[in-house]
């Protein structure tokens, strides 16, 4: 498309993709697992067999596809890359526009539960005047957005989002929320587009700041750095692989649905507030719909690109980023909602080194996928925070 208008978009996976998937699931060549290994060494073989059996015999993609297609979806070209996004209008006297940005390993589907809570709060016990116009894009290389053709796209996403919201959708001022890569993009939005972004809401401090350790850390920061180092040693190897040799991994996961499920589902278990019982937080249908979006769009490899881009950016890129940070605004008001089982638990001291922190909420429960795990808690915090900016 070569115009300024978005085209209505409908998910419609072709039958041959589903037929091929069923055959691959049937022909899965299972790996070996030592006795009593459980999840200690990665995805438990017994659970994976159970999940794949459900995927093959009981999971109904067409039912999930129809549910996703109830959301108002569009696709538009922004700076030569096709962006897929949800655009749900608020039901209230003056809805406030907000863009929600997902992270890894998910897609726009991360926010499926929270969208109605934000667009129509009155139907869920809230106030009509807290309604939002909600925009939820797929990051380039994720879901149904186009795949990047050049490296370094993660550094451009904030500009793409700003153009989407202002030039394409006509919003002069808007708010932004994100977690994981979404927090990185949201921070860059505030930094580079403070004339449009009135406030931001994050569930973590972007991980890139961990490489900016200060010479005068507070006791809370020292504890945070120690815990983060321990987490990286035990859990962080996935990021190193995706940062250094992403294609080697992508070839295998793009060819094996069972392998793809193993790589993704382990993160949903390990990063959520499930106490080791993954289906206490996510149903099999929810887990497999996440995996199906990756499988159907063949996007697992391109979902690794932000990691590779960050790890392999040259000096010129970081000089440009530094100049943008210097030229941008550090005064955009920021709110944080921290969930206790997220992979990072930064103290407020740390966040205040990089953000104009005006709200800090430590949630009683929830993890990395807060919009799925605790949509009501997250939605209420977003509603409260943005009231003063309407």
End-to-end C-alpha gap:
33 Å
Given helix and strand content, the structural type is: alpha/beta
Q: Give the tally of β-strands.
A: 9
Approximate shape: globular
Specify the helix fraction band. 40-55%
Uncertain ranges: none
Proportion of residues in extended strands: 5-15%
Radius of gyration: 20 Å
The sequence of SSEs as H and E is EHHHEEEHEHEHEHHHHHHHHEHEHH
Major pleated sheet? 9 strands, mixed
Any key phrases for this structure?
390 residues, alpha/beta, nine-stranded mixed β-sheet, 17 helices
Summarize the structure.
This protein has helices spanning 15-26, 45-57, 61-68, 114-119, 157-168, 181-192, 219-235, 237-244, 246-255, 257-270, 284-297, 300-303, 305-312, 315-327, 348-351, 370-373, 375-386, and strands spanning 7-8, 73-78, 81-88, 96-101, 132-137, 174-178, 197-202, 333-338, 356-362. The chain is of the alpha/beta class and 390 residues long.
Descriptive account of the structure:
- The chain is of the alpha/beta class and 390 residues long.
- Helix content is 44%, strand content 13%.
- The protein contains 17 helices and nine strands.
- It has a nine-stranded mixed sheet with strand order 1-2-3-5-4-6-7-8-9, sandwiched between helices.
- α9 packs across α10.
- The protein is globular and about 55 Å long.
- The two termini are 33 Å apart.
- The mean pLDDT is 94.
